[in-house]
């Protein structure tokens, strides 16, 4: 869900808790496990003669984890805006198709609706599969049929189609447009206006579907998670020795670092699949 805000709020924005890394981190099992382990490190360091860890000895691990995390966040951010661009592209192509149908067939409302309903069906099929899985849920089919976007016979044909299903209604809409344009307008006109919008919608729909099917490689995420946890554990051990005389400040510093690192990871994961 998009959270509206004004960039000039300044420090006032820090007072918000909902939809921030504070909320996601404080609800994270990993965060509280790290804090418990940090308390254990403080206890062991206070009551036992623990091996001293020099601050500079684990800095390469922390730097590497930070680099991987920032790079991962950047990749997820670019992916997020590409998905947003494709979603807006589908809506834009639908508007262009509708305006062309209205402009060039002003006296044929039945034809206008028949052209647009199939494109609307394709658009809704694309968006329905984003949060329902790889297939359109039956409730969504019922909703589209109730709104006269698609008939029961067309639904059965679409379900049996083994290719990219949202493309099938687009093909039907193109066939409908070609049948009329072939009688009334030159073929080049058809190519210029209707086929361009149809293929634009198909391209954006394919981009969204196939991008979600190809997430950021698991091996990269795995090594990032490993580096992040190892670096935070080493930081816990080192900071418990460095600030052993001020436990409250030690807890505050470590909790802040964990919130930033884990919060950035949570935000990145959310951007990678915003649906």
From TrEMBL:
Pfam families in the record: Bestrophin_2
UniProt GO molecular function: chloride channel activity
Compartmental location: Membrane
Transmembrane portions of the chain: 26-45, 57-74, 218-239, 251-272
Keyword annotations: Ion transport, Membrane, Transmembrane, Transmembrane helix, Transport
GO cellular component annotations of the record: membrane
Membrane protein topology class: Multi-pass membrane protein
This protein's name: Bestrophin homolog
Source organism of this protein record: Prymnesium polylepis
């Amino acid at each position: 869900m998009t959270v509206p805000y004004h960039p000039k709020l300044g420090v006032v924005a820090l007072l918000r808790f909902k939809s921030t890394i504070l909320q996601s981190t404080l609800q994270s099992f990993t965060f509280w496990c790290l804090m418990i382990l940090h308390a254990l490190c403080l206890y062991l360091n206070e009551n036992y003669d623990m091996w001293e860890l020099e601050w500079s000895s684990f800095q390469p691990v922390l730097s590497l984890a930070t680099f991987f995390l920032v790079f991962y966040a950047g990749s997820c951010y670019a992916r997020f805006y590409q998905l947003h661009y494709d979603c807006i592209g589908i809506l834009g192509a639908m508007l262009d198709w509708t305006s062309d149908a209205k402009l060039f067939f002003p006296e044929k409302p039945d034809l206008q609706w028949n052209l647009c309903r199939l494109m609307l069906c394709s658009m809704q099929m694309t968006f329905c599969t984003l949060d329902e899985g790889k297939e359109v849920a039956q409730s969504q089919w019922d909703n589209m049929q109730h709104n006269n976007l698609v008939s029961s016979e067309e639904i059965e044909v679409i379900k049996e189609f083994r290719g990219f299903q949202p493309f099938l209604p687009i093909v039907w809409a193109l066939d409908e447009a070609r049948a009329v344009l072939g009688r009334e307008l030159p073929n080049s006109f058809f190519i210029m206006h209707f086929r361009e919008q149809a293929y634009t919608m198909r391209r954006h729909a394919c981009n969204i579907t196939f991008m979600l099917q190809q997430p950021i490689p698991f091996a990269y995420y795995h090594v990032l998670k490993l580096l992040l946890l190892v670096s935070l554990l080493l930081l816990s051990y080192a900071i418990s020795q460095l600030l052993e005389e001020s436990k409250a400040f030690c807890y505050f510093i470590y909790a802040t670092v964990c919130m930033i690192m884990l919060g950035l990871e949570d935000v990145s994961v959310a951007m990678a699949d915003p649906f």
